[in-house]
Every structure is written in C-alpha cells, then in structure tokens.
Amino acid sequence: MLKNFLLYASETPAGEVSVSASTQSPSPEPPPEREPLKILVIGSRRGVVGTIRTLHRLRFAEVGEWSPLLPAPNPGEVMSILTRYILPE
After folding, report:
1. Burial class of residue 48 (count of CB atoms within 10 Å of its CB; 0-12, 13-18, 19+)
2. Alpha carbon distance 14, 65 (integer Å)
3. Which helix (H) or strand (E) holds 38?
C-alpha cells in the first residue's frame, strides 16, 4: 500500500521550515485515477507546527504542502490539512 501513497505529479515541494499562507498555491485537480486522502492535525499552534516539522524531517511531507494554520472548533486550537492522492484499491 505504501507504493500507492503518491503525490500528484504537478505538486512541487516548497522546502521551507515555517508554516505560512504565502507558501500555498491553489490545489490542482486530482488525477482521475486517484482519490484524495486528507490528513488533519489539530492542537495548539506549537503542537501542530512541531508535528508538521517532525513529519518533514521524517520525509513524510514538505512543510509547504500543508494548508495554512486554520482556527479549529475548540478555542485555543488550530488545524492544518495535508491532501495526498492515492490509488483506489
């Protein structure tokens, strides 16, 4: 299954180490043969940014691939979303 966990070919990593709206670009249309998978991180600003940076160091996702920090439903929390495209089984 890991080999099916691929990025859309036209996405380019930003390579930055901070999360900001300036690194974001509009989401491309997904390829017809892949389905979107959304990964959501919710918590304190420090926790979310730290998790995004840790996942970057583990080569899971580039920092710039995550959405800007958004307000979460609970007060004092933020969230960020990463969309990947996978092959359906």
Report:
1. buried
2. 7
3. strand 35-43
- Tokens 């959304």: give the residue: 38
**Tokens 């600003």 sit on residue:** 45
Query: Token match 């969309």: residue?
Result: 83
Domain boundaries, the chain: 32-89
Return the amino acid letter for 50.
G
Identify the H or E element spanning 49. helix 45-57
What does DSSP say about strands 70-71 and 78-86: parallel, antiparallel, or unpaired? antiparallel
Q: Classify residue 27 by its DSSP letter.
A: P
For residue range 4-58, list pLDDT tens digits in order. 333 433 333 333 334 444 444 555 666 678 899 999 999 999 999 999 999 999 9
